[in-house]
Amino acid sequence: xxxxxxxxxxxxxxxxxxxxxxxxxxxxxxxxxxxxxxxxxxxxxxxxxxxxxxxxxxxxxxxxxxxxxxxxxxxxxxxxxxxxxxxxxxxxxxxxxx
Length: 98
Ligand code: SF4
What we know:
Elements: H1 3-11, H2 19-22, H3 30-38, H4 42-52, H5 56-62, H6 69-72, H7 84-97
Helix pairs in contact: 1-7, 3-4, 3-7, 4-7, 5-7
């Protein structure tokens, strides 16, 4: 598993009111996705992502994340938001190849 993806996931604060999710037009459950990944439930995370958004894999590549999830991440106040797109892309691609 990609160390960079895991390192990014570990930086997530698991906000109770996740601004990343609220800032996403399709309400991608970023905090739950990260939690499942860190708990080793990558397939469950993939199922959840695709149930929420069948275009999860595409969106992880083409979404203007600086306006949506990453732009709304609480860690933006330090100009260091969680790189949600690389985490979503990793999980989505893994799930599609499973
Ligand atoms: S706002 Fe940022 S730190 Fe908070 S749950 Fe979302 S990705 Fe994690």
